[in-house]
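Re: folding output
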Amino acid sequence: MMRTRWLIGTALMATAVGAQAAETIGRVLVAVGEVSAFRGGREIRLQTTSPIEAGDRVRTGAASNAQIRLTDESIVALRPETEFVFTEYRYAGKDDGSERAFFRLLKGGLRTITGFVGRRNHQNYGIETATATIGIRGTHYVLMLCEQNCLNADGSRAPDGLYGNATGFSFGTNRVSATNKTGETVFGVNQPFHVPDINTEPRRLIAPPDFLADRLSGRDRNQAKGPGKEGVQDSAGGNSDGRAAAALPPPGALTKIATEERDSAGQLAVLGNPLAGVGNGGVTYIVNVSSSFSQALVNTSLTADAQGHLASFNDGQITGASSGSATDVGSNPAAGNLHWGMWPTASVNGSPVTYLHYIVGDAPSLPGTGVFTYSPAGGTQPTNAAGMTGTFLGGTVTVNFTPGNLQLNNWAVAFNNATYTQAGAAGTSFGRSPGFSGQLGWTCSGTCSGTGGTVPGNYAGSFTGAGATGMGIVYGVFDTGNNGQIIGAQGFKR
């Protein structure tokens, strides 16, 4: 029954795949282990920079993974032992209704940051699976198709079916929809779901299952080859047309690592390889003048530069690295050992970005009960795509750990002769998960633009430290006027 394919709605997949085969629709950012594409009746080995064409069926082997960037700026990260088909794709540089992005997940799992396709015309995007078709409202989400191969944290086998979760924000209303024979069910950020089969209604889960968090097992495979080999195929590869390819230069070695150990001042100790640090918090960056991206960081590998400032992060699917020294840096050891800063230029999954704000701290333990108010504990100056800076004026966060929910209170940001104040309630449920995200509306006054005096926004972050003594939150203000996308990082302490 799991092999039955079903498509609901107006997928408009009538375009012949063969007619599209010559069109390059994206490129491979990372290929670790065994990564290949079935194209034109033959299997082609993929490596970093290999083109992806419409109609390709991409396969990853055991202990392997791939990250692919499409022309609409979306990114698809494929887990080990996955088969994924780029069924129909068309993007001419604008979302005018002619764009299309339809895919099929035949096996395994993925994580994706959606791009321009589907941002406005939601019906033009979909991922078909055995149990449901996934649509978007503009978000960042994960999917895993379980077929007797998914294990819970306690070692028990999880029920078969499709599992998913919207884990972060891109541009849009930040929802995913699961549609099968029972109809359509919509889920928001941090609302994990399970679709057992095509005839059963999708249901929300209390918390995401452990196997939804992909730790990139392909990384272990490459580490066994020696330093500087990650992201390069483990045997001599070829170009997409079968010609021999020149060896790719290895990435530069990371000479300093931030660890969980502290120095005498309570700061993160900076040690040499091979020690690795793990932290929680959030990251946000400018994608272009009209969009930005925010993401909670949970149990993320961190590295530091010689000054002890964050130099790179990797949460298993999203990898970011600074192109220079961090600026606007600060720390608060009493707030879960928070550290924050801004990278003026950086790369995320191999793509250049600007004005990346981060805030990270110790991995937390959450109290079982209690209501607490968190007050500001330091953070970055908010910036926009032009590099202008503003000020976080204040605000608090109230957290009730008994049901696991939080509420933002009276947030305000000053930016370029404009003031943005929180408009109405803004909160979310996190259960027992340390990470969280939600939407945050703002009322603008002064030199700003909005509908009815309001502009949309969002936030994402995580608790930090033993007993969740701190939290790091990244946030966005999406003004359509001269200020544009405004982003920042803010720490809080209870």
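--- second protein (sequence, then structure) ---
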Amino acid sequence: MIAGLALYLVLVAPPIAAWLERTMAGHMLLQVPLLALAGGLVARGILGRHGAGLAGFNAAGIAGLLVAVFVAAVWMLPRTLDAALRDPLVEAAKFTSVPLLIGAPLALSWPLLPPVARAFVWANVISHAAVLGWLYRAAPDRLCARYLFDQQATVGAVLLIIAAVLLFALASYAIAGSPWQGRTVCRCAKRARTPASRRYPRRKPWSQD
């Protein structure tokens, strides 16, 4: 929780906020995800791993996930980024809604999601990143009035790279599984092959003089 609060205070500091908002990539791909991360760390520290499930409104993490996805889609729009740079009230709404309505619900809902739902979320993230990346690269005009055309093209390229990396990671996990899981299986198999006499040596009784 302390790490989340510290990260949030750093991000809302005027010099840091102005530095991140100088470029479209810093605004969309750094500031917004880091604000969500700060909110998630604070929520996990306060409510714990299964805090959202205790409230009775977040069964299987679906409700919290829907809230996080909807608010994240709003803050990925170019016009919303322009409004945040132009209007201090929208900027304040960003610093409030991203941690509370994206980071916190996502952090509390993710442990409750079944594996199929997690795979569905990752597939949608990859497809949306690829589509947005292609759109930013192929758009003939600027989509954000406050940022230059080359910054928009840079964001598009970064989104395409993120989509490719996530797709490769997801495919590798689906084919080979988690590397940590393999290490655990090997460790358990090695332990099973060890004779019981070596795993649990007999204790010699205390000798009495």
